[in-house]
């Protein structure tokens, strides 16, 4: 029974340890920098140590000859000691390995130091830099239909002209109605009315 309790306790302890997430140094650097007053000595020191971390990762094995890394790393050692901003315990976990790999000191400066200047921004690897090659642009759509041959244009024009001539000839050859004598237009309606009146009178007379 005791061994079972011991086993359960060991499992719970292991689970609680595995549940603890170790924060990435760069994420920690960004989080801590947001808490500082921009332009203050603490802000510049946090930023300097954070940029040294970034450049150390970006440069890889070439960090030891990278001026951005070496400048920020040296300034971080200057300002991060216990008698200054006292943040080496936060950044040292990531920076000490870089410093040892380059044969640099991993001990912050002692005694009160002058504030460090603003950090030099880290330069990312070439693969993550924005490409200077302009993106291909889409050319405006153009018509690919070839122009009609000049011969066909003349043929069409000639054909149209021939049709027009034929239509004109047809219209002019059609016989026209004989002209109406003057006054007939006024006479014909009156004559028709008179015929109707005459027919009505004739029908009435027969009914009587």
UniProtKB/TrEMBL annotation:
Residues 1-19 form the signal peptide. The keyword Signal applies. Residues 121-175 have a biased composition (Low complexity). Residues 106-180 are annotated as: Disordered. Keywords: Signal. This is Uncharacterized protein. It comes from Gaeumannomyces tritici (strain R3-111a-1) (Wheat and barley take-all root rot fungus).
């Amino acid at each position: 029974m005791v061994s079972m309790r011991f086993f359960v306790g060991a499992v719970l302890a292991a689970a609680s340890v595995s549940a603890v997430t170790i924060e990435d140094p760069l994420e920690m650097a960004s989080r801590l920098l947001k808490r500082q007053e921009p332009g203050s000595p603490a802000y510049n020191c946090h930023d300097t140590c954070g940029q040294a971390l970034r450049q150390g990762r970006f440069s890889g094995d070439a960090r030891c000859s990278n001026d951005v890394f070496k400048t920020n790393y040296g300034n971080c050692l200057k300002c991060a000691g216990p008698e200054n901003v006292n943040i080496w315990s936060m950044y040292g976990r990531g920076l000490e390995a870089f410093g040892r790999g380059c044969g640099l000191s991993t001990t912050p400066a002692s005694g009160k130091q002058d504030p460090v200047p603003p950090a030099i921004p880290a330069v990312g690897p070439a693969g993550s830099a924005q490409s200077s090659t302009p993106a291909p642009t889409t050319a405006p759509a153009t018509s690919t239909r070839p122009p009609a041959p000049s011969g066909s244009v003349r043929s069409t024009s000639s054909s149209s002209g021939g049709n027009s001539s034929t239509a004109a000839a047809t219209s002019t050859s059609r016989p026209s109605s004989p002209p109406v004598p003057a006054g007939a237009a006024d006479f014909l309606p009156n004559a028709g009315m008179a015929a109707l009146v005459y027919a009505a009178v004739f029908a009435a007379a027969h009914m009587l």
